[in-house]
């Protein structure tokens, strides 16, 4: 297509994790002829996960990337127009709303479902990325089960890190918690729970130098940033719990968000502050962040979009 050409669609879905694909399935079945742009990471966070055991309907478990291929194929079979491309700018000043794709093409949409997800924050060390999916994980609730009875490490100092450390303490033999400063950011009650849990050891003033392992995690090397002492701890898994970043930057001047950048929706709905723009999945959920809850909210967004278009007489 020519640069700066425009296309008009009924329902535009931005993002392709469980929320986006589920929205596409429901929107297709409702006759909305949805167009879905997959974004920078088609399939979302599940494509960097290995085994998924907690999604209903897969009694033997399934690989994350395979699951997302299934979601995509189902959405295509229902008639969704799924495209590779990244939303780079939006203009929600008037209807139809406008979304720029890959800085070269504009889509005009009668309704929009934002399902751009969130990205885990990482420490930024080479070994962490090399062993990602092989014992390195950003989701203890997703992956802790695979290391039951084993020693594991977790890095972080906020409520999420404390919650995940406590979760791991119930299924793992020992949890080594690495905290950069001499205190936690977590709420007092969560800190107390961590300190009162016998099999959680906290390493204060400590930075992760390297995740050890060849093919899979075998340990972690940490350095005390006060004494300079270096310690190697043998562990089977390394969990990063330093937060998530919602992928919401391009919507900042239009959509109401909380201080962390998560899109605010009207409770019990997927509706944002802009009529006809809906949000689903991890871009608006900082509490649960599970594939099954993302898929559920994708369904809600498609149903909300269908009702909105019907009431407007567009559909």
Summarize the structure.
The protein is of the alpha/beta class and 315 residues long.
Structure in words:
The protein has 315 residues and is an alpha/beta fold. 25% of the residues lie in helices and 28% in strands. The protein contains 7 helices and 19 strands. Strands 1, 2, 5, 6, 7, 8 and 19 form a 7-stranded mixed sheet that branches. Strands 10-17-11-12-13 form a 5-stranded parallel sheet, with helices on one face. A hairpin with a 3-residue loop joins strand 7 (97-101) and strand 8. Helix 1 (18-29) runs parallel beside helix 2, helix 1 runs parallel beside helix 7 and helix 5 packs parallel to helix 6 (188-195). The two termini are 27 Å apart. The mean pLDDT is 94.
Protein traits:
alpha/beta, single chain, 7 helices, five-stranded parallel β-sheet, 315 residues, seven-stranded mixed β-sheet, elongated
What is the topological layout?
Blueprint: E1 5-14, H1 18-29, E2 35-37, E3 51-52, E4 62-63, H2 64-77, E5 81-83, E6 87-91, E7 97-101, E8 105-114, E9 118-120, H3 126-130, E10 136-137, H4 140-143, E11 151-155, H5 159-171, E12 174-178, H6 188-195, E13 200-203, E14 206-213, E15 217-224, E16 230-233, E17 237-240, E18 244-246, E19 277-279, H7 291-312
Parallel strand pairs: 1-2, 1-8, 2-5, 8-19, 10-17, 11-12, 11-17, 12-13
Antiparallel strand pairs: 3-4, 6-7, 7-8, 9-18, 14-15, 15-16
């Amino acid at each position: 297509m020519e640069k700066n050409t425009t296309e008009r669609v009924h329902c535009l879905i931005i993002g392709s994790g469980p929320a986006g694909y589920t929205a596409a399935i429901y929107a297709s079945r409702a006759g909305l002829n949805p167009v879905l742009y997959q974004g920078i990471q088609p399939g979302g966070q599940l494509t960097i996960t290995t085994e998924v055991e907690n999604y209903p309907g897969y009694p033997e478990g399934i690989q994350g990337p395979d699951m997302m291929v299934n979601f995509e194929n189902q959405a295509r079979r229902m008639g969704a127009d799924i495209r590779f491309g990244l939303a780079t700018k939006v203009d929600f000043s008037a209807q139809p709303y406008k979304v720029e794709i890959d800085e070269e093409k504009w889509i005009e949409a009668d309704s929009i479902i934002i399902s751009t997800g969130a990205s885990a924050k990482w420490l930024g060390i080479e070994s962490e990325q090399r062993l990602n999916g092989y014992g390195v994980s950003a989701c203890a609730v997703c992956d802790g089960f695979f290391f039951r009875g084993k020693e594991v490490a977790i890095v972080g100092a906020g409520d999420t890190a404390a919650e995940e450390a406590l979760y791991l303490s119930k299924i793992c033999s020992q949890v080594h918690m690495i905290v950069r400063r001499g205190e936690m950011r977590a709420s007092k009650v969560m800190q107390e729970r961590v300190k009162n849990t016998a099999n959680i050891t906290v390493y204060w003033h400590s930075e992760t130098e390297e995740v050890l392992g060849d093919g899979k995690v075998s340990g972690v090397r940490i350095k005390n940033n006060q004494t300079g002492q270096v310690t190697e701890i043998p562990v089977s898994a390394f969990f990063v719990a330093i937060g998530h970043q919602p992928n919401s930057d391009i919507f900042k001047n239009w959509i109401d968000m909380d201080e962390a950048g998560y899109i605010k929706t009207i409770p019990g709905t997927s509706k944002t502050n802009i009529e006809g723009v809906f949000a689903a999945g991890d871009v608006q959920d900082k509490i649960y962040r599970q594939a099954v809850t993302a898929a559920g909210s994708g369904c809600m967004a498609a149903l909300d979009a269908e009702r909105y278009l019907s009431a407007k007489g567009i559909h």
